[in-house]
Give the backbone structure.
Amino acid sequence: MLYWQYILLGIVLLPGIILAAVAQAKVNSAYHYFSKVKAKSGIKAKDAARQVLDGANLESVTINVIHGKLTDNYNPSKNCVSLSEEVAESDSIAALGIALHEVGHAIQHNRKYFPAKLRNGAVRFTNFVSTLLWPMVILGILFNFLWLDGLWGMIFILAGVVFFFLAIVINLITLPVEYNASNRALKILKETQILDSTELPGCRKVLRAAGLTYVAALVMGVLNLVRFLLLVIISRD
């Protein structure tokens, strides 16, 4: 393979890498700023989350405090909202937005929000399929599609296409789920007056910045598939 071909394969991923870097910078910037802006209500994020969950008749949903920075998540199999220590104990605009975003996922699960159900099912299926496909993709790349014109070549190609396509599908389904959770959070924060009208724009900035990371992941998934297909084409020459 010529040097320019290697360079081409690297350039293909450049837009996704730049977008991912920009998204992460926006998240860090928005969180850093609004994590220092205290909400007028003075309520801690973990207490706000508990209050909203109880108000939605979701007393069965537990709240755990975990280690790490921005490791907050909702686990539907355990019916548990996990908040990072920095978020759980804070009464900042950023912390409240993040905590209520995870509560939004819990509400989605309780109300059987279809995109969320679809994503959870797709993730389980993809994890299973990827376990089978990943070794084939690695072998194909390591051997640089040595047997491209034979049976093994076709197996490597199909495994790679399916693997990267599934990643795109997961990211595509994830977008509406994440944005819906953020919209639910903003609506709840407004209705419960945990944040007032002057504080909501800051919270929206934090959640929108976080949402951009999922857009970047989708773009990167598409570019990875394109790069894989280019590798196949180049290897045939």
Summary: The mean pLDDT is 88. DSSP finds eight helices and three strands in the chain.
